[in-house]
Write a sequence for this structure.
């Protein structure tokens, strides 16, 4: 399905990552945003709040982040594409209702413009330390999808992809930006609406009396009935059967939660996305994401100038993690080097998948700035020795 | 890979960020290069010194921050003191003449050389606030400075920068802002005359 032209600001723009993310949401068809302002994410909703009235969208500034996420879940059940935007402290407060969205299979997008933490940390400065929280922050077993843009252009493109993935898999999709990308201004090309593919909600055509909200009939994802369309159904955060009613036993838990996990795991090969540069025949592969991917590419150029066969694997989708590709590379290379603006998060996944077949070298940075490319280069050179 | 690093600084309210936005837009959109604008956030953006940086490159800008600017545009004394030491030895200083008083050759932090000679002067002053006032609105001081910047550096053509000004200022203010831009260019032409024929930037970029 093509994008609604009302939300697409076709043209060549000079935008910061936050504005570009907002434009991506509107282009994807997002028409409900609830949020609570927090640096460095506020510009996303400022942009949306200013433009929404022209396309019939609704922005609500909520009392806090718990309510913001709850409002997004509710709005999505009317069939409206919905999103919230925050940074670390607000992301923590959203965790419970992100879990609710997972359990109720509610399509929605959550943008986290990461700043330095923990707690209120560095409000105006960059961090990438919420990557494991993105994966594991809500309680219970679940799978979701997280993307990591490296530029304002990608903030636009990947926010559209986030909405599409959330509709396809009926799962919250996280856009894990960082302050640097959010606050940097670069050229952003917005394609015409007819060139932007959007995934609509898959609505049920079942007769009213027969609809069951969690019946899948062998498909990974159930059909959707909008609140207000006249279907009588129940949905809940409790473990539920196909009718959506709570069933408190291990058998139903296995069936219900297993499917929630498997609908992502079983499609992981289609969902994972990464870019490689110079990994063919490389001794060292730098695994990176977000703003750090750009700095790391510079470091790899420096290392190549010094004769090291180094390549880059940039994660575009971070969750699910590209386990298969890391395993393959581990068999052929000497070491992975993993720079990230935290004290070691995604590096743990790389280590797990490398399973001892290649060395794994973390290049931590506490936040408040990006890596010095020469520091990453030094790690590459040492790993190559 | 030729890379030009620019810092623009002044006090909050002078339109530092808009000046950076216009220059970045001219480079990235009008001239088809790559330009990454970073604006300072935090307490310094509210009241005192305010700053924006640009990395301009023919290829993708990988490292978004600047290390030592090639061009330093200063609109306040405080901004000058704060950032003067980082300007490259052969860099170009562009300053608001009435508000900034460069002190060449200060021994402790001496990158700035106000040299004259074949390469031309490396420091270019303009009374941009007074020029803006003479146009009727002190507010367009930053656009006068953008015009002067364009004439000094020739980073992009005047027509390209002019288009970026037009596209970036609030609707209804284009005429005044374009006048301010032209006044900045004109001041350079009349004051620095022959130097107008060659760009102030070193050829190596």
């Amino acid at each position: 399905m093509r994008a609604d032209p009302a939300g697409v600001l076709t043209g060549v723009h000079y935008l910061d990552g936050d504005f570009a993310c907002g434009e991506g949401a509107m282009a994807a068809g997002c028409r409900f945003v609830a949020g609570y302002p927090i640096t460095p994410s506020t510009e996303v909703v400022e942009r949306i709040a200013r433009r929404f009235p022209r396309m019939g969208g609704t922005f609500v500034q909520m009392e806090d982040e718990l309510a913001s996420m709850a409002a997004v879940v509710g709005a999505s059940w009317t069939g409206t594409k919905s999103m919230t935007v925050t940074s670390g402290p607000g992301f923590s407060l959203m965790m419970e209702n992100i879990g609710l969205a997972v359990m109720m299979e509610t399509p929605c997008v959550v943008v986290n413009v990461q700043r330095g933490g923990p707690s209120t940390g560095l409000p105006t400065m960059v961090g990438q330390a919420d990557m494991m929280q993105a994966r594991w922050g809500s309680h219970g077993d679940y799978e979701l999808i997280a993307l990591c843009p490296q530029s304002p252009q990608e903030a636009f493109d990947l926010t559209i992809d986030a909405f599409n993935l959330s509709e396809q898999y009926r799962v919250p999709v996280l856009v894990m930006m960082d302050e640097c990308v959010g606050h940097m201004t670069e050229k952003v090309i917005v394609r015409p609406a007819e060139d932007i593919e959007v995934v609509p909600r898959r609505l049920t055509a079942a007769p009213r009396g027969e609809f069951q909200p969690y019946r899948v009939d062998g498909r990974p994802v159930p059909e959707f009935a909008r609140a207000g369309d006249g279907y009588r159904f129940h949905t809940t955060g409790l473990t539920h059967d196909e009718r959506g009613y709570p069933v408190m036993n291990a058998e139903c838990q296995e069936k219900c939660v297993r499917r929630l996990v498997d609908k992502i795991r079983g499609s992981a090969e289609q969902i994972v996305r990464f870019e490689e540069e110079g990994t063919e025949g490389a001794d060292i592969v730098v695994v990176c994401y977000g703003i750090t991917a750009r700095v790391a590419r510079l470091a790899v150029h420096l290392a190549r100038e010094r004769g090291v066969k180094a390549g880059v694997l940039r994660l575009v989708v971070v969750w699910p993690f590209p386990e298969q590709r890391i395993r393959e590379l581990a068999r052929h290379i000497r070491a992975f080097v993993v720079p990230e603006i935290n004290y070691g998060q995604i590096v743990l996944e790389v280590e797990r998948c490398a399973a001892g077949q290649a060395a794994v070298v973390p290049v931590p940075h506490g936040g408040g700035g990006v890596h010095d490319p020469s520091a990453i280069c030094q790690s590459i050179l040492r790993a190559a020795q | 890979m030729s890379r030009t690093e620019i810092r623009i600084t002044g006090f909050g309210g002078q339109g530092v960020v808009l000046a950076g936005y216009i220059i970045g837009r001219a480079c990235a959109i009008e001239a088809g290069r790559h330009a990454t604008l970073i604006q300072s956030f935090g307490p310094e953006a509210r009241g005192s010194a305010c700053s924006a940086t640009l990395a301009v490159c023919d290829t993708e800008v990988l490292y978004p921050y600047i290390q030592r600017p090639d061009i330093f545009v200063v609109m306040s004394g405080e901004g000058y003191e704060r950032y003067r030491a980082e300007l490259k030895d052969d860099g170009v200083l562009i300053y608001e003449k009435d508000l900034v008083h460069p002190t060449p050759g200060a021994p402790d932090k001496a990158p700035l050389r106000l040299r004259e000679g074949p390469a031309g002067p490396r420091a270019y002053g303009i009374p941009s606030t007074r020029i803006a006032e003479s146009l009727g609105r002190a507010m367009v001081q930053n656009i006068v400075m953008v015009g002067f910047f364009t004439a000094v550096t020739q980073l992009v053509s005047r027509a390209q920068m002019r288009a970026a000004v037009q596209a970036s200022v609030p609707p209804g203010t284009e005429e005044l802002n374009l006048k301010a831009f032209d006044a900045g260019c004109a001041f350079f032409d009349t004051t620095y005359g022959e130097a107008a024929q060659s760009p102030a930037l070193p050829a190596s970029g």
